[in-house]
Amino acid sequence: MPSHVFVVSPAPSAKENPRQTTALLRAGLAGVALMLTGILGGCAVGPDYAGPPRLELPSHWSAQSTSRKRTGTLDRWWLRLRDPLLNRLIEEAVVANPDVAKAKAAVREARATVQQTASGLFPSVSGTTSVTDNKTSAGSSSVLVDSSPYALHQGSFDSSWEFDLFGGTQRSIEAAVRGEQSAGEDLRDSLVTLIGDVASYYVEARGYQARIALAQRTSVSQRDTEKLTRSKYDAGSGNAVDLSKATAQAASTEANVPTYQAALAADIHRLGILLGRPPDGVAALMAKAAPVPAPRMPLPTGLPADLLANRPDVAGAERKLAQATAKIGAAEADRYPAVSLTGSVGTSALRAGDLAKYSSVSWSVGPSITVPVFDAGKRVATVRIAEAQRDQAFATFHSTLLTALEDVENALVSLSQERIRATKLTEAAKNYREAAKLSRSLFETGSASFIDVLDAERSLYSSEDSLIQSKVSAAKDYIALAKALGGGWVDPVDVSTPIIVDTNTGPHMREALK
Fold first, then answer.
1. Would you state the pLDDT for residue 139?
2. b vs e for 297-310, b when ≥16 Cβ sit within 10 Å of the residue's Cβ?
3. Which CATH architecture has domain 63-132+165-336+381-484?
4. Which helix (DSSP H) or strand (DSSP E) does residue 364 occupy?
5. Most buried of 128, 234, 319, 420 (most Cβ within 10 A)?
6. pTM value surpassing 0.90
């Protein structure tokens, strides 16, 4: 790096015209700035970030062969669930959810941080003015003469500009920009999580509604069986044991309803909170039962390497790694000399109107060099801290990526196996339904025992309830796969509007503490 010699001209006469003095000061600052242009052009210390680390990734998902790779887009994946109310709830949640609002505020903070950090590349200028009453005394030990009091008007402009010789400020700006990018990914991640949660709780709620309806239908049928058993008992062709069992089975089925009602209420309450409403805020919308959403298959899974861009938590962790790398350079630059250019113009007069006419003017301009000499290893330790934080960021990125791969693999296997399970449960429910119908007919004619009826009805209820749960599980596995692949909101999100808009922030009388 070339060395430069800074030459400072002597101060001008106090009688020099202030306009000429200001012009000279501006010219001097401009000349020094031009001289330093080469220095400011690209000198930097610390490591340069070379992009996402190269990690070994599988070429395809273990649940799929390379020939079955599914491509496409995950945009608005929840539309595949074909439920208009769910679509409405998701759109409202994106607008009103508090966690999303918090993530938006974090993006605004990150953007302001970039602006704040970038100001370090420019000079700072401040002005001061003062008026003081003065009086002086002079004379020998025997004679003391007092002058008349007078007012002294003074004004000055001071400027300072620290040159980014070793790229410390640029590294700080680089870190701030990457922090802003990371905040954007965190916002996208909050949207992915939110949409997945709304869909999951909605599916669960519809599942509990279906299970409640099934239990109520089944208990009605079982009460009919109880009546039939009681009739046989009253006629002398039945026994008390069968009657007790029939009554107990109906009561056992009815006992499931309060449990399902409580779980349904909890899911509805959670949906209200996710939408930024009170817990019962969506109860009216969910009052009417609807089928469990059945997703359209399949989702476009792409390749494992796509997670680096599609998963916002992975992309955000990578941006945090880039940010931590830039902070090393900022800490390293602090170990080198700092060069600042300072300048000031001062003027004073006995009358305010004379400050720019017949005043006494002084000015100064020149460089200031600060050289670290001894700090007991503080700056070196700061660099080591930044390097350790970079390593932590890399470990977090690696862990996040591995977790993302695990999430997709688990969701693929769960969804695939649940579809197989649902097929078997559908077949079982169909046969149990036929068995219950036949056993009941035979029992009415006296050709079958009550045990056959009891077992058939119990098995039918269990299989139908399991089938509903399987439909819920399949839909939730579908949602989990969409989340694991990074599917979420794709429309632009307005982050410029603050949550709280302050008013009357100018000078005003302070109110009493509240």
1. 65
2. ebbbbbebebbbeb
3. Up-down Bundle (1.20)
4. strand 360-370
5. 319
6. no
